[in-house]
Design a protein that fits this description.
mainly alpha; Cytochrome Bc1 Complex, Chain D, domain 2; 2 domains; 14 helices; globular; oxidoreductase; iron; Di-haem_cyt_c_peroxidsae; peroxidase
Length: about 375
């Protein structure tokens, strides 16, 4: 019996030693440098100067309450959380979100949204509070107008919280009330942040030179990271700590909504942006310096913007299927398969030539998926 126990112990210790002996970091110095550029995470909170209630606990409380309350829809039938499901990474599991009708796009995840530069798939807004107002006033979604929203808030259980934060509602113009509601929603959404993952532990270990700790990151994930940084050229668009360059690209996804309608993407988004009174350059911004207004003042529409869409963050992405602006790719495997065999005929002839079929082997595809999933295994 004793010999048997010692034999099992010896086998266990031998396996443990072999595991430690084979653990390693296979990245080159250049790959390590590129890996370090994807952190640290999470970023420090910086209040939005265009939103005077950004970061205020009372605004966060009000925004959270309203986010989950159907008062923001005119007929009281839906809330923000119906399309931005907390159990689904604050994204929509439906391919195309549903309001009063089936909408044209899949609702983007709201996690890490405060780090964006442009908002929505097409970038129709340059700030979070303006974007928060869009579904509320859209006839195809929550279907309020400024007056009906003001009346709904006046009759709601949230009136005291609203007035404690913004003052007497009856003395405010209806549009001001709408903007205030949107700013409280934005204050809440700024708190929706994914935590550090096994990728971040690997990245941070490499930064401090702790190879032993870094070697715990699976070799398959390391090989997938090498594909992501190198051969796949994924980091061209999915760059930085949030794994997005925050800009707009053509991913080779069809932009036909049906046989007679197309989604113009960024091209239409810029039309909406220029028509909006709620930009960082406008009077509803609380930033006296208008420090972020340069973007909307300088951006110029191009023909190549047609059918391009904002690059989403890859953090937390394993929980937010389906993917692409129209929800046409059901899971991460479908995304890898899309880029593996991408149809170059779908890319704009006057756009950027950055995509080619990856032609990954079965194991390489598996490795890339393993890496992508390490961007979602949050600790907190």
């Amino acid at each position: 019996m004793i010999k048997s126990v010692f034999g099992l112990l010896a086998l266990f210790l031998g396996a443990l030693w072999m595991s430690a002996a084979t653990a390693e970091v296979i990245l080159s110095d250049n790959e390590i440098a590129l890996t370090l550029s994807h952190g640290p995470w999470p970023p420090a909170f910086v209040a939005d100067p265009s939103n005077r209630v950004s970061g205020l606990p009372a605004a966060i409380k009000l925004g959270k309450g309203l986010f989950f309350n159907p008062v923001l829809s005119r007929d009281g039938s839906m809330s923000c959380s119906d399309c931005h499901d907390p159990s689904h990474g604050f994204a929509d599991p439906k391919a195309r979100s549903v309001g009063k009708v089936i909408l044209d796009r899949n609702a983007l995840s709201l996690t890490n949204v405060r780090g964006h530069r442009w908002f929505g798939w097409a970038g129709g807004n340059d700030n979070l509070w303006a974007q928060s107002l869009v579904p509320i006033l859209n006839p195809d979604e929550m279907n309020h107008d400024d007056e009906s929203l003001k009346t709904a808030i006046a009759k709601s259980t949230w009136i005291q919280d609203y007035e404690a934060l913004f003052g007497p509602l009856s003395e405010q113009a209806a549009t001001d009330v709408s903007v205030n509601i949107a700013k409280s929603l934005a204050a809440y959404q700024e708190t929706l942040e994914t935590g550090p993952t096994s990728f971040d532990r690997f990245r941070n270990a490499m930064e401090r030179g702790d190879i032993a700790a870094a070697a715990h990151y699976p070799l398959a994930a390391q090989r997938g990271l090498q594909i992501f940084l190198g051969r796949g050229n994924c980091a061209f668009c999915h760059s930085g700590p949030a794994f997005t360059n925050r800009e707009f690209h053509d991913a080779g996804v069809p932009y036909f909504i049906n046989q007679t309608r197309v989604d113009t993407g960024r091209y239409g988004g810029l039309e909406a942006l220029f028509a909006s009174p709620f930009t960082l350059a406008g009077s509803y911004s609380d930033d006296r310096e208008k420090s972020g207004a340069w973007a909307v003042r300088q951006v110029q529409p191009l023909h190549s913007d047609f059918g391009t869409f904002r690059v989403p963050s890859l953090r937390g992405t394993a929980r937010t299927a389906p993917y692409m602006h129209n929800g046409s790719l059901a899971d991460l495997q479908a995304v890898v398969d899309h880029y593996n065999t991408i149809d170059l005929e779908r890319l704009h002839t006057d756009g950027e030539a950055i995509l080619t079929p990856l032609a990954l082997s079965k194991r390489e595809s598996s490795d890339l998926l393993k890496f992508l999933r390490t961007l979602s295994d949050d600790e907190g």
